[in-house]
Amino acid sequence: MALKLWEMDERLEAMIYEATDRETGEIDEQALFDIDALEMDKELKILGLAGYIKGERSEADAVQLQADALAERAKGHKRRAEKLQAYVERHLPQGQSVRDDRHWLKWTKSSAVEITDESKLPSEFMTDPVTPAPRPDKIKLRQALKTEAVPGAEMVQRQKLHVK
């Protein structure tokens, strides 16, 4: 009897189905003991599991292919949204807001640490990792810049447009 990729003993398939966690896809360890204890020809059991494994791998490949396609679509949507956001930012004067029953566009103030010359930063404002090389610690810099000047960094004020 020739087994197709998706054919296997119903008892074996039911065991796998019942022992699979629907959220993680993991198979309960006890199920492996139950499969081992299942009274059927060992070779048929192994061949049935081989078909199931191939089916799972094929399904995983198909899902990954769709996930990759969806990720590309998502990137395209994000690029269009960014481009349109930039357009709106150029055409809506800072400080002005626009609102209707569906949308609300408003500018908010924010601040950010901008590194003007990393080589001038005091060492206490650098992170400690060996790999990758130390880099500016913007959290420490933000706190310090609230009360003092730090060589190589400055606090810049920005406007950010929120579209809700």
Describe what you observe in this structure.
This protein has 164 residues and is of the alpha+beta class. The protein has two domains: 1-91; 98-163, no CATH class. 47% of the residues lie in helices and 15% in strands. It is built from four helices and three strands, in the order αααββαβ. The chain has a three-stranded antiparallel beta sheet. Strand 1 (98-99) and strand 2 form a beta hairpin. The longest helix is centred in the middle third of the chain and has 50 residues, at 42-91.
Q: Count every helix, treating DSSP H or I runs of 4 or more residues as helices.
A: 4
Mean pLDDT: 87
Q: Rg to the nearest angstrom? A: 29 Å
Structural class: alpha+beta
Tell me the major beta sheet: 3 strands, antiparallel
**Residue share in β-strands:** 15-25%
Write down how many β-strands occur, each being a DSSP E stretch of 2 or more residues: 3
Question: Portion of residues in helices?
Answer: 40-55%
Low-confidence stretches: none
Written as H for each helix and E for each strand, in order along the chain, the element string is: HHHEEHE
Distance between the ends? 62 Å
Q: How many independent structural domains?
A: 2
Tertiary shape:
elongated
The order of strands across the largest sheet is 1-2-3
